TrEMBL record:
Region (Disordered): 1-33, 317-337
Swiss-Prot/TrEMBL cofactor(s): Mn(2+); Mg(2+)
Protein's name according to its UniProt entry: DNA polymerase iota
Subcellular location: Nucleus
Family statement: Belongs to the DNA polymerase type-Y family.
GO process terms (BP): DNA repair; DNA replication; translesion synthesis
Length: 482
DNA sequence: TGGGGTTAT
DNA sequence: ATAACCC
């Protein structure tokens, strides 16, 4: 099928119809079951669908640091390097190095269990994330040097869109060099590379760039990690974990069905979380194939069209979500959990501590928070994950003080946060909190002009001329606030 | 379970 | 403001 002619949309409609057709004759069990030969047709359909128009096929890398917090701690204190090391937050070992893993320590194991399994385990406290956060952004910045299109996922994972870089490298190559290209790292399934297949060649160049990225991370930052190269984010992420520590894997399109079917449960599919997997299980869906073959109509009724269509595409290994550059953070927050906080004074003290750290961070960032939020967790025996929050604007005079620096901004902020607190907690009644969190969000450069707007080009400090210019004006000087 | 983050509704 | 997702 030529995508240019009938239009790609019709192919998709055909695929959907093929599925519904197959569903109509579904052989018992639950609605939507397909015969094995029909399944192959379906997989074939989806295989052909995604790369449609090979010029639009992407090369994505997922970079995943090995036991990140533990690595940072081992760099801070090299004596820890050859010992089993765990990073502790409260009563849990949140991550550990490979020495410790060999001895049976697992992520998010309680300190008690971990010590029982491994009495020699060395523990360091990792409740203050400052050094991890700093190292995390160094990694992202290093990757941004290869290509600015880097999307962060947590502190230790990044996606990079390599499509353009790969194209440029291929343009530079002579034909004799082209035939001599080799893959860097593993090929998923040990699938043979076809040097005449343009998709293979592009992914292979992607694997070379991935190797260069990992080498740069090690040489410049001393960090090791894994990488996965594939045609979309989902597959790149899944394949990055295939060979584990400090190795990389490329996925060729012919093996994508094998990769997704290597998952033992839909919950392992990135994008399908706790809630959705429970709802799917209630529908009798537990494997990737169950989800592939389930009636789209019924799934849409149950989960809503948006979630249904997205996760069913995921089940086929399809993911058209772009690598979205993360840029600077959208929010800053600090939280603390504890066994019990039951007085207003106690809460105020904790809030002051969180706020003090946050103000330092916000100050260093340079942008100003226009919204504050207080979140808390009340003790309750049964339910899990019951947090509530209240938020409000940061008063303009406080934003001004933040901008000017040096003025006391603690006092007015604590007052605001305590109002939010009393809005959630009736302080005249007994209460029992187990977590407090303060968040600054809605961050703006003091300068409110946005890229692409008239204001942007009329603002000397932002327009291109002033980057090179000797004078830099501030908005205030221009009386533009009005 | 901790101490973070994101986007969608 | 909450609910889902990610690490």
């Amino acid at each position: 099928v030529e995508p240019e002619e009938a239009g790609g949309g019709d192919e998709e409609a055909d695929a959907t119809r093929a599925m519904e057709r197959a569903e109509a004759g579904a052989p018992g069990g639950w609605p939507g079951a397909l015969e094995p030969d029909e399944l192959d047709d379906l997989a074939w359909f989806h295989d052909e669908l995604e790369p449609a128009g090979s010029s639009s096929c992407r090369v994505i890398v997922h970079v995943d640091l090995d036991c990140f917090y533990a690595q940072v701690e081992m760099i801070s204190n090299p004596e820890l390097k050859d010992k089993p090391l765990g990073v502790q937050q409260k009563y849990f070992v949140v991550t550990c190095n490979y020495e410790a893993r060999k001895l049976g320590v697992k992520k998010l194991m309680s300190v008690r269990d971990a010590k029982e399994k491994c009495p020699q385990l060395v523990l360091v406290n990792g409740e203050d994330l400052t050094r991890y956060r700093e190292m995390s952004y160094k990694v992202t910045e290093l990757l941004e040097e290869f290509n600015p299109v880097v999307e962060r996922l947590g502190f230790d994972e990044n996606f990079v869109d390599l499509t353009e870089m790969v194209e440029k490298r291929l343009e530079q190559l002579q034909s004799d060099e082209l035939s001599a290209l080799t893959v860097s790292g593993h090929v998923y399934n040990n699938q043979p590379v076809n040097p005449r297949d343009t998709l293979h060649v592009r992914l292979l160049v992607g694997s070379q760039i991935a190797a260069e990225m990992r080498e740069a991370m090690y040489q410049q930052l001393g960090l090791t990690g894994c990488a996965g190269v594939a045609s979309n984010k989902l597959l790149a992420k899944l394949v990055s974990g295939v060979f584990k520590p400090n190795q990389q894997t490329v996925l060729l399109p012919e093996s994508s069905q094998d990769l997704i079917h290597s998952l033992n449960h839909i919950k392992e599919m990135p994008g399908i979380g706790y809630k959705t997997s429970k709802r799917l299980e209630a529908l009798g869906i537990s494997s990737v194939r169950d989800l592939q073959t389930f009636s789209s109509k019924i799934l849409e009724k149950e989960l809503g069209i948006s979630v249904a269509q997205r996760i069913q595409k995921l089940s086929f290994g399809e993911d058209d979500s772009p690598v979205t550059p993360s840029g600077p953070p959208q929010s800053f927050s600090e939280e603390d959990s504890f066994k019990k906080c039951s007085s207003e004074v106690e809460a105020k003290t904790k809030i002051e501590e969180l706020l003090a750290s946050l103000l330092n961070r916000v100050c260093q960032d340079g942008r100003k928070p226009y919204t504050v939020r207080l979140t808390l967790r009340q003790y309750s025996s049964g339910k899990q994950c019951n947090r509530e929050s209240r938020q409000c604007p940061v008063p303009p005079h406080v934003i001004q003080k933040l901008a000017a620096g040096n003025y006391d901004v603690m006092t007015p902020m604590v007052d605001i946060l305590m109002k939010l607190f009393r809005n959630m907690v009736n302080v005249k009644m007994p209460f029992h909190l187990t977590l407090l969190s303060v968040c600054f969000c809605n961050l703006k450069s003091l300068n409110t002009a946005k890229k692409g707007t008239i204001d942007y080009y009329l603002t000397p400090s932002l327009s291109t001329t002033s980057h090179a210019g000797k004078r830099s004006f501030k908005m205030k000087d221009c009386h533009m606030e009005d």
